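Protocol step 4 of 5: obtain the predicted structure for the target chain.
Materials: sequence only (see below). No template structures provided, no constraints applied. The aim of this step is simply to have a reference model before the mutagenesis design in step 5. Sequence pasted as it appears in the construct record:
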Amino acid sequence: MPAAGHVPVLRDAFVEALCHRPDGRYVDATFGRGGHARALLARLGAAGRLLALDRDPEAVAEGRRLVAEDGRFSIRHAPFGELDAVLADEGWNEVDGVGFDLGVSSPQLDEAGRGFSFGREGPLDMRMDPTRGPSLADRLARVDERTLARVLRDHGDERYAARIARAILRARREGRMKTTRDLENACFHAVPPHARYGRTHPATRTFQALRIWVNDEMGQLEAGLNAAMDHLAPGGRLVVISFHSGEDRRVRDLIEARVHPCTCPPEFPVCVCGRTPSMRWLQKKPLRPSEAECAANPRARTARMRVAERLA
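Step 4 output (structure tokens):
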């Protein structure tokens, strides 16, 4: 069973799309608390193998307990941006499927000490791997207002990015930016009064953007997806669940670049660039959770799943 408090999103659809060869080799690039991995193992045959990655030490600890239970499973402490190196180290040149469940897991959100949630007071950290790289507090100590505003716009689609960036850095200079509660308070008071009491909390987009920035999630995504597509065997599947529009657009564009790689002008009668497709869409229009799943797990409501297959 998944770890307490963690409900894997689109679990059955994810496994159905990914695991098309029960005795194949598969990668769960985002182990989390193992909900998708356990469902995949239930689908695999005796000769099947599942390799998982995660950058969160607590997730890896959970995964090692699963290693002791099932000899078909192994896990590596690494971000999925290092997938190419991990597969080379494992001697897996080709795999039959790679699955990604992007974003932050429920246990990470629920643990105040990780600093991911504005609903619980915690440190300004937000690192998915607390043992590596600068924390949010470290980054805020060095960033300028223009760069911070760009982060909030690019990664959070934040309408009031400039106002919020100014408020955050002003609070930091004045010694009022110590915890996630301080960050939430700065966001709340930075937006106009009419924007403070809508359906979405004013800090939501800022916390999302800062988490993506701290963890270089877009850079990791590009490296991880490209490595996955490079290592898929003919007929191998790529399955990606994302949770916000910017992330989903990047997933779509990276796959589309392999589905339609031709760079010739549209007026050319024939292709002369020589670029041929290496992937095809199986699920280009994102699959979304049912109303019943969203009601049972509200964090599923923004999920989108895309599926593509490696051509022969």
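Step 4 remarks: The radius of gyration is 21 Å. The CA atoms of residues 262 and 269 lie 13 Å apart.
Proceed to step 5.
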